[in-house]
Design a protein that fits this description.
- The chain is mostly beta strands and 180 residues long.
- It has three helices and twelve strands.
- A hairpin with a 5-residue loop joins strand 4 and strand 5.
- The termini are far apart.
């Protein structure tokens, strides 16, 4: 296992991303189009939109790259899984507006991604963290796997339930030239 990110990262607007070769950032509707889970938008190839409870400030964040599927840790309150294929070998975790990024060391192959969070409701209630310990923490895990539909593994927080609802209401992207 490799941990390219450990510690705290800064989030703005309750979001942070995994980016590989994207000049223009896709919008929320594009990234969650047709998904059941609303915490990790993976509908745009080579891009992940990660939702946090905290609106602005530092959250605990760890990224792990595994050779095989890791076990689900019961410490995490909200867990989703999606499929992801980087478009380049330069995939990185990126703060809002590209303010900072961390190279992840991912190969150009199919991955399963597990995004886990705890303390999301506390982070959402806090809204902005300027001091004290992080209210919410996240674990982003990658391992090689064939593509599969996204899924909600565990959902306990109200804010995760809200975002899952948003994703379910976001229709799949229409193909250009499709009906009116």
């Amino acid at each position: 296992m490799h941990r390219p990110v450990t510690g705290e990262v800064h989030v703005s607007y309750g979001q942070i991303y995994v980016v590989s070769e994207h000049e223009d950032q896709p919008d929320l509707d594009e990234t969650f189009a047709g998904q059941a889970s609303g915490l990790c938008g993976a509908a745009v190839p080579g891009f992940l939109w990660l939702v946090t409870g905290l609106h602005t400030g530092d959250v605990g964040f760890t990224v792990e790259v595994h050779d095989r599927e890791p076990p689900v840790d019961p410490v995490w309150e909200d867990i989703v899984e999606v499929s992801f294929r980087p478009l380049s070998g330069d995939s990185c975790l990126q703060q809002w507006a590209g303010e900072r990024d961390w190279l992840l060391g991912l190969e150009e192959t199919d991955y399963r991604v597990r995004y886990s969070g705890r303390g999301m409701d506390r982070g959402h209630e806090l809204d902005t963290r300027v001091e004290g310990d992080a209210a919410d923490h996240y674990l982003l895990q990658f391992w090689p796997a064939t593509p599969q539909p996204d899924r909600i593994v565990r959902q306990t927080s109200q804010i995760a339930a809200y975002w899952h609802g948003v994703a379910r209401e976001t229709p799949p992207e229409r193909v250009e030239g499709e009906g009116a």
